[in-house]
Write a structure and sequence with these properties.
With 229 residues, this protein is an alpha/beta fold. It has 7 helices and 9 strands; from the N terminus they run H-E-H-E-H-E-H-E-H-E-H-E-E-E-E-H. The chain has one domain: 3-Layer(aba) Sandwich (Cobalt-precorrin-4 Transmethylase, domain 1), CATH 3.40.1010. A 7-stranded mixed β-sheet has the order 1-9-6-2-5-3-4, with helices on both faces. Strands 7-8 form a two-stranded antiparallel ribbon. The termini are far apart.
């Protein structure tokens, strides 16, 4: 019975979400900082868009206009996200740092070298929240394409009780979205060099995150920053 309900929900929920999300997000007012960057990256052959997990609901909608491939967790819950992504026009590869990550990375390298953007959740499928994992940097190094940070904040939103406190912008919210500067990673970089780039990119993304949320009158989207500087 449980399997039947799961299969039924897989058939119903993703297409329903895609239709409703288009109507939902169409009511939002979006301000984009540095919009020329993504066009420059596309003109150069594509890149690796990296974003925090809390933001994936709107990111998928926003980036759907670009030819993209995304890595989605191989879990049962990840199947919902994969089907939504495919209905939005993305290619998907399945894997994470905990399961099938090496194979998924090889597939992503192939697609990015072929001219597609890749989309990766910077803090992975299980966190910790807003702590960058090295996968996006490894993909950039192996593909020869830059990492492109993407961060957004919303004036009105709902927070879900997941580990990352996923954010859903409410209708008619103002969304502040920014593209960071492209980050190129040379292939063959030492472990120390890769870790240095990882820390630097994490700090830059979190600085951008806080700056955008301050525009909404908050420093962060929930209480995950209590005790942080």
């Amino acid at each position: 019975m449980a399997d039947l309900l799961y299969r039924t929900s897989l058939a119903v929920v993703p297409p329903l979400y895609v239709v409703l999300s288009r109507l939902w997000f169409a009511t939002c007012r979006v301000e984009v900082e540095n919009p020329a960057v993504i066009e420059q990256v596309l003109a150069g052959g594509g890149g690796v868009a990296v974003f925090w997990h809390y933001s994936f609901l709107y990111i998928f909608h926003h980036l759907r206009r670009y030819p993209g491939v995304v890595m989605v967790s191989a879990s049962r819950d990840g199947e919902y996200i994969a089907r939504v992504a495919e209905l939005m026009g993305y290619l998907t590869v399945r894997g994470s740092s905990h399961r099938g990550g090496v194979r998924a990375l090889r597939q992503l390298v192939h697609h990015v070298r072929g001219g597609r953007h890749a989309g990766m959740v910077g803090d992975g499928s299980q966190g910790p929240a807003r702590r960058l994992q090295p996968g996006c940097l490894l993909l950039a190094a192996k593909s020869g394409r830059p990492v492109l940070p993407v961060v957004w904040a919303a004036s009105r939103y709902r927070v879900f009780g997941s580990w990352d406190r996923t954010v859903l912008p409410m209708p008619f919210a103002r969304i502040h979205l920014a593209y960071g500067e492209p980050v190129y990673v040379p292939d063959g970089l030492s472990s120390a060099g890769l870790e240095s780039r990882r820390q630097q990119l994490e700090e830059e993304m979190n600085a951008l995150y806080h700056r955008l949320w301050l525009k909404t009158g908050r420093r962060c989207h929930d209480d995950l920053d209590k005790g942080r500087t």
